[in-house]
Amino acid sequence: MQALRSGWNKVVRALADRVSTGLQSGEGGRAAVERHDVFRALVLTTHQAGVSAGEAVRAHDGAVEIEGVGRGGEDEAAFVAAQPPGLLKEVVAKLVGRQVDALFEQVVAARGDMGVEADSAPREVVGSVVVESGGAPWTLTVKPSSVAHPAAGLGVFVERRGAGVIKAGTVLGFYPGIVYPPLDMRLMPNFPNVDADNDYLMARFDNTVLDAKGVFGAGISADEFALRLRKRRQMQQTGKSQLVHAAGAAQARVNPFALMHFVNHPAASTGLEPNVMWLGFDFMESMPGAHRAFIPNVYVRKQRTLMTTAGLGVIQQGMVMLATRDIDVDAAELFMDYRYNPSLDHPEWYEPVPGSMAAERWEQK
Question: Which of 48, 154, 216, 241 is least buried, going by the fewest C-beta atoms within 10 A?
Fold first, then answer.
């Protein structure tokens, strides 16, 4: 359904409209949904790591002990819920970061074993890098979706390559493309009509927009993707331009798991349910140099290094995809709740996922 993601793109356009008129997005329901997603990600990632949420939080600097609240059961849930939202986000980021580092390490090793250069097209490695992540070994493939709808197009499948379970909370992939922080949204093509001729936009809770149009498989060939990547690097080295354009330099580095832009939305009437969720993720300065070549995102223009509340440097904003349930079949298509704004028109194939909090996601106060 990537070809008809107009509903989501209208949501992103609404963000652009607010920027163009100088309005600030409200907190309200959106903040509540973000907190909900952080709690959910905490439960999932601690499950994947084999620890309890309370243990993970207590091990993090700055955790606040709550008087009269013990350990385990309902007390542990109360302890976690009482923590500052920013601290919980840091705990989740740390748990996700460990998985990302391990995933990148295996990508680097696999490419070296295959003799594949970082500039080469991802067609050579998609489906060939097998991940060992504490459960069943797995890989991702892109092939025609199992959704019985002509607009479904391609889908992303996770395939087991051995016995066991792919655990809920596993980082399964990334959303690639150009990154537009809110202050740079005016640089988006066709601004403020940013949804014009673009079906590959995603927005984080902080209003940072990721644009995957032009990434491998999203409108250009693998050879053209590799060519754009080389041009982007040459432009950075020569200092000729700080801007990255869809028609010029590459929009993302090559990463065989940067396939989130192919994940479809499940229609409730078909019995399908989401089995992954998206989560904003920041790549940090502490990331090994060998891994940085595989960050699947690039800012539209050079940015100052962002700093977290913990004093850590962010070199790139991005987005990861987490499994929301254990996967114990040999091949499963991945589905993600698009959470379209219910006040906007939708493609005819879109059906809201029950309990998705879509209305709250786009509530303005």
Answer: 241
Asked if 13 and 362 count as a contact pair (C-beta separation under 8 A), the reply is no
- The neighbour count for residue 350, using CB atoms within 10 Å, is 18
Per-residue confidence (pLDDT) for residue 2, from 0 to 100: 44
pLDDT higher than threshold 60 for residue 334: yes
Q: Tell which residue, 260, 288, 341, 335, has the closest CA to residue 97.
A: 288
Tell me the pLDDT band of 119, cut-offs 50, 70 and 90: very low
The pLDDT assigned to 65 comes to 64
Of the CA atoms within 13 Å of residue 60, those in its CB half-sphere come to 24
Within a 13 Å sphere around the CA of 218, how many CA atoms are in the beta-carbon half?
Answer: 29
Which residue has 């609404």 as its token pair? Answer: 14
129-170 per-position pLDDT tens digit: 788 767 788 999 888 888 877 777 888 999 998 888 999 999
Average pLDDT over residues 322-343: 89
Distance from the first to the final alpha carbon of the chain: 31
Across the chain, the runs of DSSP E, i.e. the strands, are 138-144, 154-160, 171-174, 177-180, 201-203, 209-211, 276-284, 297-299, 306-307, 313-323, 331-333
Q: What is the CATH number for 315? A: 2.170.270.10
- Tens digit of pLDDT for each residue in 57-68? 888 877 766 554
Domain count, the chain: 1
Dist CA 316 CA 332 (whole Å): 30
What are the percentages of helix, strand and coil residues in the chain, rounded to 5? 35, 20, 50
The tokens for 274 are 């989401």
Comparing CA positions, the residue from 245, 244, 253, 249 lying closest to residue 302 is: 244
Q: Which residue has the tokens 């990547």?
A: 229
DSSP conformational letter for 122? G
pLDDT tens across 170-202, in order?
Answer: 999 999 988 999 988 888 888 888 877 777 888
Degrees, nearest 5: CA angle 185-187-190: 95
Residue bearing tokens 């992540």: 133
Domain containing residue 300: 2-361
Under DSSP, the state recorded for 232 is H
